[in-house]
Design a protein that fits this description.
Blueprint: H1 2-36, H2 42-63, H3 68-102, H4 104-111, H5 116-156, H6 164-175, H7 178-208
Helix pairs in contact: 1-3, 1-4, 1-7, 2-3, 3-5, 4-5, 5-6, 5-7
């Protein structure tokens, strides 16, 4: 009878350990999803940014058949458009910075996970989130530099005398940012996709236990 009680007690301890491990993973998951709520304004910012990009494209089309006075006028509008896009980028940086700060709780929670399998999942997500934060910084920094180069061109178009060679020089400088922007954007998208996959795996673990 005594042996049976010892075995039963062992089983209870095992079940308690499982419950504790799931609780640790759940705490991590809650902290992780909490950090994502800081990014809820990203979609709206992207919509506003795309609208401004559309307006910029329309104004650039108008430049093709404009006289010098019209070019000067459009130049002012393009500079305003660029300033608004730069402002949106700063807002986006702020949201991601808040998310990064909130994610610190998840980083700490990951360290407390005792189950080896669960900790591996959590650590993978932490690594992916850190990479995503880095990718976003690279992306927004590159976008900012490109917009500053655009602004230099738009400011130049406000002059009374405009030389095509000077315009081409500005355009070539802007074009240099095309590939870095694409690479940074793809990296950010890739890390985001990886996070969604890991998020799903952790949700599956919590649902099945």
């Amino acid at each position: 009878m005594k042996k049976f009680i010892v075995l039963l007690g062992g089983a209870v301890l095992f079940l308690s350990a499982c419950s504790n491990a799931e609780s640790e993973l759940n705490d991590f998951y809650d902290a992780f999803t909490g950090s994502l709520t800081e990014e809820k304004g990203l979609s709206e910012l992207n919509e506003q940014y795309n609208e401004l990009e559309g307006s910029k494209a329309s104004m650039q089309e108008e430049l093709n058949n404009a006289d010098i006075k019209e070019i000067n006028s459009i130049s002012e509008e393009l500079q305003t458009n660029t300033a608004e896009r730069l402002e949106l980028l700063e807002e986006e940086r702020g949201l991601i910075a808040d998310s990064d700060g909130a994610f610190e709780e998840a980083r700490e929670a990951a360290e407390d996970i005792s189950n080896e399998e669960y900790k591996k999942e959590a650590d993978s997500l932490v690594t992916a989130m850190n990479a995503r934060f880095d990718a976003h910084k690279t992306m927004t920094d590159t976008y900012t530099e490109a917009l500053q180069a655009e602004d230099e061109l738009f400011e130049y178009l406000g002059n009374e005398d405009i030389a095509q060679d000077e315009v081409d020089e500005h355009l070539n400088k802007i074009a240099e940012y095309s590939e870095p922007i694409n690479e940074a954007s793809e990296r950010f998208a890739s890390e985001t996709e990886k996070i969604n996959q890991l998020k799903g795996e952790i949700e599956q673990i919590l649902e099945n236990n």
